[in-house]
Amino acid sequence: MRPVGKRLKSAILIDESNAMHQLHDVGVGGFRSWKKFYQSIEQYLKSNYGQKMVTDFNFYGTLPPKGHVEDAKYNSRYKFFEALQYDGINVLRGECYFQDDGSLKEKQLDVLMALDIYELSVYKYEYIVVFSGDADFVPAIERAQKNGSTVFAVLGKNKSAFHLKNSVDVIINLESIIQDMDKKTVIPSKTTWKVSN
């Protein structure tokens, strides 16, 4: 039920690594403005749940370890996070470590995001949107729901995410959100970008 006359609180939480996999699956390489992507999701919420809404934009990602990658790569990521913050997006960073095989491993992001999902529900956010297909968030989502929050997941129509799909209240179709955006904002991946319904 929509609260009448009340300013609603919502939050959109994006797990960068998982989100980028989903975006690549639908032929999107990124956005010229991530704020526009957040606003497109926010507009979905306002259209369906009430225009009097204030929304937090949260982005979860990591920087590569400084001194262990070329400066240009580190600086590019650092500037990316600064640009997000300039646009009013809260950037929450985990740690990034090299594994024995030389690949990078992100740490602490799932814990940060799960804690925020729960904490937002404690602070009586009516709507929490998670852009991730990671089942690790299911316990936090269930606790947020017990606190009265409605939890959404942004998922591509071909994303399996069985456990997450079965725990959230509403699934927001990723392709529909992208379809509603200005095409100049969307950066196609190297494959041909098509949004099918």
Automatic annotation (TrEMBL):
It comes from Paenibacillus provencensis. Gene3D superfamilies: 5'-nuclease. This is NYN domain-containing protein. The lineage of its organism: Bacteria, Bacillati, Bacillota, Bacilli, Bacillales. Pfam families: NYN (PF01936). PANTHER family: SLR0650 PROTEIN, SLR0755 PROTEIN. Residues 10-174 form the NYN domain.
